[in-house]
Write a structure and sequence with these properties.
The complex is a heterodimer of chains A (427) and B (245). Chain A is of the alpha+beta class. Chain A is 31% helix and 19% strand. Chain A contains 13 helices and 12 strands. By secondary structure, chain B is of the alpha+beta class. In chain B, the strands form 3 sheets. Chain B has a 9-stranded antiparallel sheet with strand order 6-2-3-4-18-17-16-10-14. Chain B has a 5-stranded antiparallel sheet with strand order 5-1-7-8-9. Chain B has a 4-stranded antiparallel sheet with strand order 13-12-11-15. In chain B, β11 (150-156) and β12 (159-165) form a beta hairpin. Classes of the chains: A alpha+beta (427), B alpha+beta (245).
Chain lengths: 427, 245
């Protein structure tokens, strides 16, 4: 799998707008908003051309153990597609839908794992999660589940197509409209079931109860998505992609309340890791809470089709927080959650700057989990410690290929630390 | 002991000034009035406010410190109509602040003042002094907001200027000496500031108010103005950004 020819040279892709293409839009759009005006994303087209086609199923029927896993699509909202995801095998399949346990796996095995998941589609209204619809209710019941659940499914036609990839959600295998399915009795996760039974519990409180009860973030996202959380009448089906960020953002925001009044850390720290050809540096500073995620895309990496220039984008917040959705998207909230987990564990406050350098080996979007889990992974390691910002920045300079000046140039937080004076400088 | 009767509008002005920087504040109360000092969490700005006895309809107090949650005061103030008078007293037994507006009584828990420091106002030598209507500053801020996140305050013996430099565009508001209420400037100076902070501070000046600005070269700015119809005063201090970006 190698991306070499320039995707914008593909003549089969019709451009709808005459506007000159700016390749730095790609890192903001990530194949979701079609900012280039083309009917389909040339980068994703290129990616698909390089991916092995998933093995097609021979028949319309499929039996296997769902991890358990459900998916809610976002297209056509408030009419959405919902359904179970089923691999063609039995046994302990939980790993297929547990990104918390994927760290360290090469990109190929993550793809190989995910493309086994065949997705059933069934069209329902997102604002009527209690509709008396057997397929809908069975899918929601599946989302309550703890261990893998055996399912016999019949599709309306043979599930076809290739692996589905996008920047928000984990990759998935082929899909087809589902006709019916039978499943063994679901062994519910008691913690999720308790939140589901409590129809007075706000979604926010439900999310936090589950998180504090040790439920994986990916499982909470599944429950929110299936409309299992929230006050009874206000429950909704939530497209998987949106539910991922809703949970990351809610949990992070709640932890931040404590972070913002805790004593600050005592030194500058640099945590780092390299995963899936992404280099990560998490810098923590002994200052008031502020946070930034900076992503740099090398030429010829996934979201930078340019042959020459590096594309860098960033979103940040200072102590007061931000009022608009982060330009950089769901990754921002995923990494903010991971950062606050560390600070909550230590009962400390810090300013956090996360630098991500995506190298040419990162050619497939694998989902926001990539950011959350790899930042978590870096933060489990022992940091390098410095007693000055200059020392910490020196570390960044040594470890990253992109010059420090470029990072500072786009970073709102670093510029604030370097150029904004504090009152104590004058006492 | 603390028992006060004051106009809702006076408390509103005071809260507006403080809430631009902090969520909680320690009030130093004496029989002569209320004073407070606070620094924002990023240590970029500070406020020093005093409200004289004359700002109150009635004030009876012995020296004490009360920690208040600004959001709670705002909630109460949102119940007050223009011209309403508030009665506030400290219930020492339960350590609550009790606020009466018309027929509403709110009991408000107080914040522990133990961890709240008394910030020191740095001694600054600021060569330029400018006095002008807040409305002029608001115009300059409005002009800058679409250009940049920063604003430069510039003064020389002939006038005062607010300017912003963006990637492609720039904007400036120039006021010659005769358009200012007062100008005193021993040497030309220029300092750059975060527009967010500066705008929030100037917005908390009561409408039709007058601001005295003291600035220096790459140095903090000091802003002084009156509240409570002259019976209270506010001093803001704002640290600069250094222009080597």
């Amino acid at each position: 799998m190698k991306a070499n020819a320039h995707p914008f040279d593909d003549p089969t892709i019709v451009r709808r707008s005459k506007k000159k293409m700016r390749s730095d839009r790609c890192s903001t759009c990530r194949g979701t908003r079609m900012l280039c005006g083309k009917a389909r994303c040339p980068i994703m087209a290129k990616v698909y051309a390089n991916v092995r086609t998933a093995p097609l199923l021979e028949t319309r029927s499929l039996a296997g153990s769902s991890p358990p896993s459900v998916f809610v699509g976002r297209f056509g909202y408030p009419k959405v597609d919902i359904g179970p995801m089923i691999p063609p095998r039995f046994g302990d399949t939980h790993l297929l839908d547990t990104p918390e346990e994927w760290v360290g796996q090469p990109i190929d095995s993550i793809i190989a794992m995910r493309q086994q998941l065949v997705r059933g589609r069934h069209s329902v209204r997102a604002d009527e999660p209690e509709a008396p619809d057997r397929l809908l209710q069975a899918t929601r019941e599946l989302a309550l589940g703890g261990p893998p659940t055996r399912i016999d499914a019949m599709f309306k036609k043979r599930p076809s197509g290739r692996i589905e990839l996008n920047s928000g959600t984990q990759p998935m295998g082929p899909s087809a409209p589902i006709e019916s399915f039978e499943m063994e009795t679901v062994k519910a996760d008691r913690r999720i079931e308790r939140a589901y039974d409590d129809t007075d519990l706000l979604a926010r409180d439900g999310i936090m109860d589950l998180y504090q009860g040790g439920v994986y973030v990916s499982r909470i996202q599944r429950a929110l998505s299936a409309g299992l959380l929230g006050e009874g009448k206000r429950r909704r089906l939530v497209p998987t992609r949106w539910s991922i960020t809703a949970v990351d953002s809610t949990v992070g925001e709640t932890m931040m309340e404590r972070t913002k009044v805790a004593p600050t850390i005592d030194e500058y720290r640099i945590y780092e890791t390299t995963q899936l050809d992404n280099r990560w540096i998490i810098m923590m500073m002994p200052t008031e809470w502020c946070y930034e995620l900076v992503e740099a895309w090398y030429p010829n990496t996934l979201w930078n089709p340019s042959q020459r220039s590096i594309s860098i984008i960033s979103s940040h917040e200072l102590y007061q927080g931000r009022k608009t959705y982060a330009e950089i998207g769901g990754c921002y909230y995923a990494a903010r959650l991971a950062s606050n987990e560390l600070l909550t564990r230590e009962g400390r406050q810090a300013g956090v700057v996360i630098l991500r350098e995506a190298h040419p080996g990162y050619i497939l979007p694998v989902g926001v989990w990539n950011v959350r889990e790899h930042v978590r992974e870096a933060l489990r390691r022992e940091p390098a410690r410095y007693d000055s910002l200059q020392g910490a920045l020196g570390h960044v300079e040594r470890m990253m290929d992109i010059p420090l000046k470029r990072w500072i140039g786009v970073s709102g937080v670093l510029k604030d630390r370097l150029y904004q004076r504090r009152l104590e400088d004058y006492t | 002991m603390f028992k006060a009767r004051l106009k809702g509008d006076v408390l509103k002005e005071m809260i507006k000034v403080v809430s631009t920087l902090v969520d909680e504040v320690k009030l130093n109360i004496t029989g002569e009035g209320i004073t407070l000092k606070a620094v924002d969490p990023a240590h970029v700005a500070m406020v020093d406010l005093s409200l004289n006895k004359e700002a109150f309809e009635e004030l009876e107090a012995t020296d004490c410190e009360l920690g208040v949650d600004i959001d709670k005061i705002k909630e109460v103030l949102s119940l007050a109509k223009a011209g309403d008078i508030l009665d506030i007293d400290h219930d020492e037994e339960h350590n609550k602040l009790v606020v009466h507006i018309e027929n509403i009584t709110r009991h408000m828990s107080l914040v522990d003042t133990m961890g709240m420091s008394d910030p020191k106002m740095p001694q600054l030598n600021l060569p330029a002094n400018i006095k002008l209507a807040a409305a002029e500053l608001n115009q300059g801020i409005k002009a800058s907001e679409s250009i940049s996140n920063h604003i430069a305050l510039v003064a020389n013996a002939d006038g005062f200027e607010l300017s912003s430099q963006g990637d492609t565009d720039s904007v400036s508001l120039k006021l010659r000496k005769d358009l200012l209420l007062h100008l005193e400037c021993s040497e030309p100076v220029r300092s750059l500031f975060s527009l967010d902070y500066f705008a929030n501070m100037i917005r908390s000046v009561p409408s039709s108010g007058v601001v005295t600005l003291a600035i220096g070269q790459d140095y903090p700015a000091m802003m002084t103005f009156e509240i409570a119809e002259g019976n209270g005063s506010v001093t803001y201090l704002l640290a600069p950004r250094i222009e080597n970006e």
